[in-house]
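Reviewer comment 2.1 asked that we show a complete input and output for one of the modelled complexes. We chose the glutamic acid case, as it is the one discussed in the main text.
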Amino acid sequence: MEKEIRTRYAPSPTGRLHLGGARTALFNYLYAKNQKGKFILRIEDTDLARNLKEGSENQLNGLNWLGISPDISYQKEDQYGPYLQSKRLDIYQKYIDILLQKKLAYKCYCTKEELEESAKKQKAKGIKAVKYDRKCFYNPIVKKGINPVIRLYVEENQKLIWNDLVRGKIEIPSSSLGDFVILKSDGMPTYNFANVIDDHLMKITDVFRGEEHISNTGKQLYLYKLFNWEPPRFAHLTVIVNNDNKKLSKRDESVVQFIDSYKKLGYLPEAVFNFLSLLGWSPNTEEEIFSKAKLIEIFDVNRFSKSPSQFNYPKLKWTNNYYIKKLSLSKLKEFLIPFIEKKDLIFLKDNLDEILLLFQAQLREGIEIKNLVKIFTIFPNWKNIQYKFNEKEINLIKDFLIESKKIKFTDLNLENLIKRLGIKFDLKGKNLMHPLRLAFTGKEQGPSLIKTIQIYGKEKAKLILERFLKDEIHYR
Ligand code: GLU
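Response of the prediction step:
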């Protein structure tokens, strides 16, 4: 029987689910699903000082919202769990003891000051890659009342080689590693140690993660060798950069950084899923729109991109708009209602369906609906517009007011009225519609004007134009 493919996303719960983390999770998810395997969420919560209380929950909620739900997690364990590292301390200790017993690791009592002193000396000798000087290995003295760290004794003559799915063959000499710490003085394993123990015991077959982990992979491979375990396959994904090709900083506002912010701004999870899938991976086609099922079907680990992936905000909005346009009325309502203010919702309840449908095609972020519906809840504020109406345009509006009182607001009647007035005033196209739109909505642009006027209804349309004509400021 073939080995089951098991991938994992292994965040530290030190922050909210970030774009980069979500992308890592997504690729691991897609591959597991493509291979009919399992996608696992493992929480690496061994950095006690940096853990956030809601960190794990935020990560899991974000994944669930995106539709990247793990098959296995701290909420859904299997026989290889637990999947919270803080619950696995006895497991790590067992392997630490083995290494200590075999004299492959040793206790180190050096203080921060001693380490700094040693580093200084090495630098003075011109050594750039400073390493631990093995003081506690050569002089194994016990300091009472101090908890030691455990260091691995790293042989210097090994080559650590792997075939990275993104970068090809990578080789790290073990001499560059130094005797790195595997257990901290607070009894917690270090990232590199716990990561290897867990990936092995959890039967992880493939590890896709950010390129910042390339240097860690050397240390991890050293441990795999030491235990005589088969390492997983690695892919180190290229960084995500902003429009200026700069690596994302958490404060960069040209990029939506956190998954819960996408939700708050009114992104559909399908859109974010689709967008993220093309951030560092590409299918064998020019297409941009892919359903989840399609992505699962075509996902191919040989198509990770080799160059940094650029976060393109307009493309994200375009993708979101595409998915918003596809929503059925009931889904559209479910999606948009939370963005509309309560008082507006109450006011608009009789026309809500029509109003949402009116704006559906233009929405790039759901939150836009909040202000858009205001054209139906408050009178336009013409003072804010730059445009100066000329006399002809004012007469056009006056006539519209008079004539529209006489007709029923059907599509055809309104169209004909506008056409007639166009002929009368010798105005066409934009020159005809623009003043009318401004008078009715106070806005330069908007959805179908005829539909908008219909939603106002006769009474409100009349009131708006009357008020507009009274407020002469814009055409004097
Ligand atoms: N906890 C690590 C991180 O958040 C996991 C890296 C890995 O996937 O090995 O970066």
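The chain has 19 helices and eleven strands. We note this here for comparison with the apo prediction described in Section 3.2.
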